[in-house]
Amino acid sequence: MRFVLIVFAVFIFMVSSGYAAPHLEVAVDIIDWGQIYSGEQKDGVFTLHNSGDSALIIDKVRSSCGCTAAMMSEKIVQPGANAQLRVHFNSKHFSGQVVKRVVVMSNDPSNQQHQFTLRATIVAELAAEPNYLRLGVIQVGEKLVRSLTLENKSDVPVQLKAVRSTSNFIRLDAVPTQLQPGEKVTVQLTVTGPAKAGTTINGYLLIDAQGHTRTQMRLPVVARVAKQNT
After folding, report:
1. Residues 194, 218: contact at Cβ < 8 Å?
2. Residue 11 backbone dihedrals phi, psi, to 5 degrees
3. pTM higher than 0.85 for the full model?
4. Number of H helices, E strands in the chain
5. Radius of gyration of the chain measured on its C-alpha atoms
6. What tens digit of pLDDT does each residue of 130-153 get?
7. Cα–chain-centroid distance for residue 136?
8. 126-225 in CATH: which number?
9. C-alpha distance from residue 59 to each of 16, 20, 112, 147, 186 (Å)
10. What top-level class would CATH report for the domain 23-123?
């Protein structure tokens, strides 16, 4: 009889152990930061709950982009306990609607990969029109002048800290030191054709700006120097 009871107890233990499993529950798995300015860095926290009856083991956390960092507060979440997934997003070099994803991989048999979503609409504080200057053909020694419009799209003043060019043949003049919210200003771009015919002018205008964040606007400028007739 005693042997039968022992066998029965072992059987019950094996059956109950076989059905024990972790269960990952998440009340919220989307963060929407709404409109933010390019260069802003945002942080968020997701709460993970183990409603199962065995330990939830986080095997791996993977983000869809190097701009997004993600870290778990705990790698092992006991039954009934919570853990936090902390995320950090750097909006530098992004614009418009942006969606990033973080995937948490665990030993939950019914949800081995749970996806978390980060959303934002990213706006540049300083805009330029046009934002790419293709100037076509320029003659040797010719000075080509074009107008460029800068606009403050922020809700705070934007200071223009520095303006420079990566090419000696490209110059930007009449640039103010500050733009008020919503203000537009027209500046003059001057490109001088180098002495060597048949070459290409290929450079950037770099404008360092400070509003909510410190950013650098990069405007490509391209022109081709005409070949001389022989």
Report:
1. no
2. -65, -45
3. no
4. 1, 18
5. 29
6. 999 999 999 998 999 999 999 999
7. 33
8. 2.60.40.10
9. 24, 19, 9, 56, 55
10. mainly beta
